[in-house]
Design goal:
It is built from 5 helices and no strands. It is mostly helical and about 110 residues long.
């Protein structure tokens, strides 16, 4: 097993784990916004997004460990790309769905 790729997997576990734990703060703060829609207010969007962060971390670490066993030159970079790309996709989907939820909630408030 390559030492550099093993260190890359360990760094991904530490940094990705810290990021995922720190992501609890903005997800919890989203519930307190009075203008948010019902999906965000009840945590129905936060839970899948939070689970998605951990899923992408696990997939990235698995790719890094697989690269360490295969000793592939670009395996560590690909593992970080899997993790970082997954986080970007997850957060973009969360914010897009939260915005849609907000627009629908504002329209419902305006109709009353």
């Amino acid at each position: 097993m390559s030492v550099v790729l093993s260190l890359s997997a360990f760094a991904m576990i530490v940094l990705g784990g810290l990021f995922s734990v720190a992501a609890l703060i903005p997800f919890a703060m989203a519930n307190d916004d009075p203008a948010c829609g019902p999906l965000v207010r009840n945590g129905l969007l936060q839970l899948p997004a939070y689970v998605g962060l951990w899923v992408w971390l696990v997939l990235g670490v698995r790719r890094a460990l697989r690269a360490a066993h295969e000793v592939s030159p670009g395996g560590g970079a690909l593992a970080w790309l899997v993790y970082a790309g997954g986080v970007v996709v997850t957060m973009a989907a969360f914010f897009a769905l939260a915005k849609i939820d907000l627009v629908i909630a504002e329209r419902r408030r305006g109709n009353r």
